[in-house]
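RECORD TYPE: inverse folding
INPUT: structure tokens
STRUCTURE:
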């Protein structure tokens, strides 16, 4: 293989992104699904917030975090699903072996999946945030530059988990597909999406602080309730995310190598 083929190629990354984009825009059920579930859950948490706020004014500030917490959690979950769904399209179509024998490098494949996760999230997330403004008067975009930091940290975590899940599916076949949908929910109670870390038992709290999203959701509550931006929490989340991304990338490469050795890329069934 020539040195040119081995070099990183933005054109190959762009080709993969176009492949997934054409697949997405050609299917209206896929587009509807990106908006449907976030919208349903946004209405559920939004009306819950209104009900709590009307019953007792003392907890109105705390209740206002419900909708913000849901939107950020959905960003984290959809970011990982957006990454994994594009990967799963290759598994379902049995096209992954073709990609692996092409000049496409694993890093180019992963970058394309990352970009598609952002695109898929934008399709569903932006309309839902607009609905939240219209129905509940909650504007997530009012968080300003802090929101950019929240987004970046949550995307990093989503990509790390997405790489791990994709690697497990490559190595173990479609029998491991369920991990793609459930892996993030394992983190849900520990990342303290809807309650502060101090709610957890003392022995569980160090585990929670080892998860980057925990710092993001704690920072969100500090910003929404106390109007304070916790830069220390965001730096902690960023440091953890660098470790998580490194671990996710390493797991993807190692599991891809093991899948090639075992011939699992050809046998992509259960």
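DESIGNED SEQUENCE:
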């Amino acid at each position: 293989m020539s040195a040119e083929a081995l070099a990183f190629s933005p054109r190959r990354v762009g080709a993969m992104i176009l492949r997934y984009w054409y697949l997405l825009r050609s299917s209206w059920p896929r587009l509807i699904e990106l908006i449907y579930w976030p919208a349903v859950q946004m209405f559920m948490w939004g009306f819950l917030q209104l009900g709590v706020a009307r019953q007792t004014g003392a907890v109105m500030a705390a209740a206002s975090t419900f909708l913000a917490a849901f939107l950020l959690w959905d960003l984290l979950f959809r970011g990982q699903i957006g990454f994994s769904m594009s990967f799963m399209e290759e598994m379902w179509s049995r096209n992954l072996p073709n990609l692996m024998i092409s000049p496409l490098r694993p890093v180019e494949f992963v970058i394309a999946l990352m970009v598609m996760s952002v695109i898929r999230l934008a399709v569903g997330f932006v309309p839902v945030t607009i609905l939240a403004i219209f129905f509940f008067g909650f504007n997530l975009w009012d968080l300003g530059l802090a929101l950019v930091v929240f987004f970046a940290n949550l995307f990093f975590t989503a990509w790390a988990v997405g790489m791990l899940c994709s690697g497990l599916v490559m190595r173990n076949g479609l029998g491991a597909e369920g991990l793609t949908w459930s892996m993030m929910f394992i983190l849900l109670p520990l990342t303290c999406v809807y309650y502060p870390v101090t709610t957890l038992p003392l022995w569980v709290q160090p585990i929670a602080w080892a998860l980057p999203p925990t710092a993001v959701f704690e920072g969100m509550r500090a910003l929404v309730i106390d109007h304070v931006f916790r830069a220390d929490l965001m730096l902690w989340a960023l440091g953890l995310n660098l470790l998580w991304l490194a671990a996710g990338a390493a797991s993807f490469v190692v599991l891809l190598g093991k899948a090639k050795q075992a011939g699992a890329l050809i046998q992509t069934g259960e």
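NOTES: The longest helix spans residues 60-92.
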